[in-house]
Amino acid sequence: MKRKLLRISLWVIGTLFTITLTGFIWLSVKFNTHQVTDNIYMISSPTGANLTVYKSDQGLFVVDTQLKVLNFFIKRHINNISKQPIKYIVNTHWHPDHNGGNAKLGENAVIIGHENLKKRMQSAQKGYGLTKPGSSHDFKPRKAEDLPTKLFTDTLIISFNNEDINIFHVPNSHTDTDAVVYFKKSNVLCVGDLVWKDKFPYVDNFNEGSVLGLNKALSTLIAITNSNTKVISGHSDISSRNDMIETNQMISKSIDFVQSRISKNLSLTQIQEEGLSSDMQSWASDLVPEKNWIEMVYKSLN
Ligand SMILES: [Zn+2]
Questions:
Q1: From CA 184, how far away is CA 221, in angstroms rounded?
Q2: Cα of 15 to ligand 1 centre, how many Å?
Q3: Given the DSSP bridges, would you call strands 51-56 and 40-44 parallel, antiparallel or unpaired?
Q4: Domain limits of the chain?
Q5: What is the per-residue pLDDT for 48?
Q6: Which region, left, alpha or beta, applies to residue 198 given φ > 0 means left and ψ of -120 to 50 means alpha?
Q7: Other C-beta atoms lying within 10 Å of the C-beta of residue 213
Q8: Most buried among 21, 218, 250, 269, by the most CB within 10 A?
Q9: How many A from CA of 96 to the centre of ligand 1?
């Protein structure tokens, strides 16, 4: 009997070990480092948000820090780019897939965020349930070591390695905590979750995000960039100014459509049932299906 128990225990331990090892290898393989310019890199992963590393002899400047569970992989990939210490971290907004590595990566760094970021991170939050329209998800307050240590209101310029790095707030867009980072000399713009190349953006109405604010924010970003600008967003391949223009045209069209139906006193369900014109349906994704997108626009207009 004892032997049988031992055999079963060994089998359970062996299986768990195999599953863990398989998961570990799978994750390792799915991480990728893309070189964007001479000294700017984007690290992408199978889950969580893209992370930007600006390397210099003075240290590293990092935008977003991914999910906490991926700390080990992120640290390894950053080390492969440079062994220099991380001096600055900017969080583009409060969603945990953009700041989960703050404590681990930011031990000796200044962690920069918009003033609303800290408020959101240190208290419990509700966010969109991404599985079905109308559902929500609860987020717990974050630990003190995860919080930003330097806050800004509108704009903050950090001079680093002969580059003036421009960090600015775009109000009520993806959330009410959004920070955009512009490496002007390198001509690289980190936009967090404002742009989802060729996909409906995810607008967090639960946290004061608004399609109207996003529309305005993208107009600003289009005005300050050019056709050579590399755009790094949270969950897409490296994008361009043209991708921002196309996204913003789609957003304007969606606003006009939903607004015209609201003016005719149609309910959200009726507008969702009618649906967008066929040329807009290719923007739908598993994350933001057409019905969710219409709901995001509708809530922003109400
Ligand atoms: Zn987000």
A1: 12
A2: 35
A3: antiparallel
A4: 30-249
A5: 78
A6: left
A7: 21
A8: 218
A9: 8
85 CA to centre of ligand 1 in angstroms: 26
* Res 31: pLDDT: 87
Q: Is 296 within 8 Å of 210 (Cβ atoms)?
A: no
Ligand 1 center–CA 295 separation, angstroms: 17
The pLDDT of residue 1 is 62
Cα separation, 141 vs 111, whole angstroms = 18
How far away, in angstroms, is 229 Cα from ligand 1 center? 22
User: Three-state SS for 131?
Assistant: coil
Q: What is the 3-state secondary structure (H, E, C) of 269-300?
A: HHHHHHCCCHHHHHHCCCCCCHHHHHHHHHHH
Q: What is the pLDDT of residue 46?
A: 75
Whether 59 contacts 24, CB under 8 Å? no
Q: Which residues are CB-neighbours of 265 under 8 A, at least 6 positions away?
A: none
pLDDT at 289: 93
What is the 174 CA–ligand 1 centroid distance (Å)?
7
How much distance in Å is there from the Cα of 78 to the middle of ligand 1? Answer: 22
Q: What is the pLDDT of residues 247-261, one digit of tens each?
A: 999 999 999 999 999
228 Cα: distance to centroid of ligand 1 (angstroms): 25
DSSP assigned state of 86 = E
> How far is ligand 1, taken at its centre, from the CA of residue 122, in Å?
17
Find the 32 Cα to ligand 1 centroid distance in Å: 20
- Determine the residue type at 138: D
Distance CA 74, CA 66 (A): 8
Residue 68: Cβ within 10 Å count? 19
CB 283 within 8 A of CB 201: no
Q: Helices 241-263 and 290-301 meet at what angle, rounded to 10?
A: 70
CATH code of the region 30-249: 3.60.15.10
The stretches in the chain having pLDDT less than 50 are: none
